[in-house]
Design goal:
It contains 9 helices and no strands. It is mainly alpha-helical. It has a domain of about 150 residues. The longest helix has about 55 residues.
């Protein structure tokens, strides 16, 4: 029995496959555009109080926005200029020295346990250390390529900044547009909800950024006082991981403790103590002052945001999900729950 496939069937199959690919690309780029817009709104709302404060000095709002973004750009440039060069240098040096640290530590362990005479074990360990060295050097090469990766995404960053500027410029007109389609009796409620969302998200983002910077600075000073190598790289890593909810401080401490363990167990305990002290200062001193109770993002909301955001987008999704969860919490507190209470009372 000969199976004959019509050319028309092949064309239909190819057309269906191409349509599927185009649909997936359309969905991907749509989601990416939504993500960029979402990031722009977060940035704009975190800067809105500063813009409003400058505008109260009889400075036109566009000029106030320009001053705020100019100050932000200058600050980021200075910070990168101070950190980028030592960060790359120390990260590369750390990747090169890690095999030596590991070899020395393992040799001490083998001598202490009496296994240093076993040649098979020694060969396996040396092979593993060699492979680790190659992987870490590959990591250092990746770190060197980071500026190129940043440069390749500059268009998206500029786009996000431009959108955030337009969001601040057009927020009043956008608010009037929204109110025009809302019944007059609900205008005040809409304004209150929008202001609460802006305050909640802006306060949280600003607070997390300040905490991350504070943790990085405290970690750097502590590592310098303890005589730890690679203080800049380890402190930058600790500051970045501080943004990750719940598990970030633990992740940020691991590299420093491991490196200190290669030096001596006492040094590792001391470094671990440093990170614990920094974390306690953050939790009990800085966080109440910087974030305060007014931010009001409930721990359960944060936990749910981490779970769902992490499931959808990994660590980045978990971080970005928290501001969205804060807005949803405002919506529930100010709109949904009052409506449910009113319905129960009427019933």
């Amino acid at each position: 029995m000969n199976l004959r496939i019509e050319p028309r069937s092949i064309l239909l199959l190819v057309a269906a496959l191409l349509s599927g690919v185009l649909l997936l690309l359309l969905v991907y780029w749509t989601l990416r555009a939504i993500l960029l817009f979402y990031l722009a709104i977060i940035i704009a709302e975190s800067l809105r109080p500063l813009v409003s404060r400058i505008a109260t000095l009889r400075i036109p709002r566009p000029a106030a926005i320009g001053l705020v973004y100019l100050a932000l750009a200058v600050s980021m440039t200075v910070l990168l200029a101070l950190v980028a060069v030592p960060l790359v240098r120390q990260s590369t040096e750390l990747a090169r020295q890690a095999p030596d640290y590991a070899s020395s530590s393992v040799q001490q362990f083998l001598e202490a346990t009496g296994l240093s005479q076993n040649q098979d074990i020694l060969q396996q360990i040396e092979s593993s250390i060699s492979q680790m060295g190659g992987q870490l050097l590959g990591l250092s090469t990746f770190l060197i390529r980071v500026p190129l990766a940043i440069f390749s995404t500059v268009v998206e960053l500029v786009l996000v900044i431009v959108i955030s500027v337009y969001w601040l410029l057009a927020s009043q007109a956008l608010g009037e547009l929204v109110l025009s389609v809302v019944p007059g009796a609900h205008h005040q409620k809409v304004i209150e909800v929008a202001r609460a969302m802006s305050y909640r998200v802006g306060s949280y983002v600003r607070g997390v950024a300040i905490l991350a910077l504070s943790v990085g600075i405290m970690t750097y000073i502590g590592l310098l006082l303890l005589g730890m190598p690679y203080a800049v790289a380890l402190a930058v890593f600790a500051g970045i991981t501080e943004v990750i909810p719940t598990v970030g401080p633990v992740i940020g401490a691991i590299p420093a403790i491991v490196i200190a363990l290669f030096v001596s167990p006492i040094k590792a305990v001391t470094v671990a103590g440093l990170y614990i002290v920094v974390q306690q200062i953050e939790n009990h001193v800085l966080a109440p002052i910087i974030l305060g109770r007014a931010v009001g993002v409930h721990p359960l909301v944060v936990l749910l945001a981490i779970i769902f955001g992490g499931a959808l987008g990994g660590i980045g999704g978990a971080v970005l999900a928290i501001p969205l969860a804060a807005m949803l919490q405002v919506l529930v507190e100010m709109v949904i729950l009052p409506a449910l209470r009113a319905r129960v009372q009427v019933g």
